[in-house]
Design brief:
The chain contains 13 helices and 19 strands. It is of the alpha+beta class. It has two domains: about 230 residues, Alpha-Beta Complex (Conserved hypothetical protein from pyrococcus furiosus pfu- 392566-001, ParB domain), CATH 3.90.1530; about 140 residues, Conserved hypothetical protein from pyrococcus furiosus pfu- 392566-001, domain 2 (2-Layer Sandwich), CATH 3.30.1760. Strands 1, 4, 5, 6, 7, 8, 9, 10 and 11 form a nine-stranded mixed β-sheet that branches. Strands 12, 13, 14, 15, 16, 17 and 18 form a seven-stranded antiparallel β-sheet that branches. The radius of gyration is 22 Å and the shape is globular. The model has no long low-confidence stretch (mean pLDDT about 90).
Length: about 375
């Protein structure tokens, strides 16, 4: 059987899409998630969120709340069956940029035999939580993001599918314009055939992959995973910055850093590849290592330099609860204010390159947690399988 497969699924209806389709659960902060859950009873977030966070759900059976949320959407007619199995073309327009990929099933065997490679370690407790969710809520609507090398044939086939009117077109609650096209039988077969020639890399969704694999090992009836497949030129990597909760003795830290880095003044958080930004004691600094070897894989990443030369040896921080992760798409002003209030420090990084991710994956290594923040972030609740 081919690795990439047409999906036989339900598609959210035009009427319900703006209210149902939601960001992934783990993309939102707790505050953002609670706001969506409180304001929109139709959001698919009610199916994927921890039910203890649902308004009025405290103390009830966690799993039954999620099952009821899905059953409610089905009873309301929010989804309609696709007429035939097909590959879908999915477009998001975010901040003036078009992100277009292919929604398809990807065989779970590909994640085991090396045709699909990951680059991040997973947290066992998060994986187990997802497995429990999969055992009770049997329909899947969360999309794993994969990418492949650019392919002119796939680009041309995608363009042809997009020449037809979309089967779905809407703007979600976050203002993101989205469109879905259904490929015809010949187009679907051609896209499957061309995509099957590629190796894929996980851009986002390592925990969902691990959970689906484990669920299958325990007897779950699933052979493939819903994915969005993007050409590499559609993937944008952002950095994750690190804030260390205070108090931190900033003068002492800077003195110890001088033994490893040249320290200069900076106007803000932006840094070049190979250096580290630091906000401490109300000022921005830039740290440039005295020595930096061009190493492949994980060893050559800026985040590894931060972990091995600063966080662990100088601050005693590994997986400490004092560490906060901040994607560089967020405004850092609140983090700076927190540092000013509690005496903490903030480290900023340059985003890894896509080739860094590929190098790590092909060497079968894993990056530190929260190394890359990937765009696009496909929405949940568009297709239901």
């Amino acid at each position: 059987m081919s690795l990439v497969r047409a999906v036989c699924a339900r598609l959210v209806t035009q009427q319900w899409a703006p209210r149902v389709v939601s960001p992934l659960h783990d993309v939102l902060t707790d505050t953002e998630r609670m706001a969506v859950l409180a304001e929109n009873p139709d959001s698919y977030l009610h199916v994927t969120s921890d039910p203890l966070a649902l308004p009025g759900a405290l103390g009830e059976d966690s799993d039954s709340a999620q099952v009821r949320a899905l059953r409610r959407l089905l009873d309301l007619g929010a989804y309609q069956p696709m007429d035939v199995p097909a590959v879908l073309v999915y477009s998001m327009r975010d901040a003036g940029r078009d992100f277009t990929g292919i929604i398809a099933g990807v065989g779970l065997e590909g994640f085991a035999d090396g045709r699909v490679l990951g680059h991040e370690a997973v947290q066992p407790d998060r994986v187990e939580g997802l497995v429990r969710h999969y055992e009770r809520v049997r329909a899947r609507a969360e999309l794993v993001t994969l990418f492949h090398r650019d392919d002119p044939d796939v680009t041309e086939l995608t363009r042809r599918v997009r020449e037809k009117p979309p089967v779905l077109e809407f703007t979600d609650a976050g203002g993101i314009e989205q469109s879905v096209w259904q490929a015809g039988p010949d187009e679907s077969e051609a896209l499957e055939r061309h995509l099957d020639r590629h190796h894929f890399y996980i851009a986002d969704g390592h925990h969902r992959v691990a959970a689906a694999t484990r669920w299958r090992e325990r007897g779950g009836r699933t052979d493939s995973l819903l994915c969005v497949l993007y050409p590499e030129d559609r993937i944008v990597l952002h950095a994750f910055h690190r804030r260390v909760r205070g108090p931190v003795d900033a003068p002492a830290l800077l003195e110890r850093l001088r033994g490893r880095f040249d320290i200069g003044r900076a106007d803000g958080p932006e840094v070049d590849r190979g250096s580290i930004g630091l906000y401490a004691d109300g000022r921005w600094h830039v740290l440039v290592p005295h020595r930096r070897d061009a190493l492949p894989g994980v060893a050559g990443l800026d985040v590894t330099m931060l972990d091995e030369r600063v966080l662990r040896p100088l601050l005693g921080i590994g997986g400490s609860e004092r560490l906060e992760f901040l994607p560089d798409v967020h405004d850092l002003a609140p983090a700076r204010r927190q540092c000013d209030e509690d005496g903490g420090v903030l480290f900023t990084l340059h985003a890894p390159a896509l080739e860094d991710l590929v190098s790590v994956a092909e060497r079968h290594e894993v990056m530190s947690a929260k190394t890359t923040f990937v765009k696009p972030k496909p929405r949940t609740g568009i297709v239901l399988q």
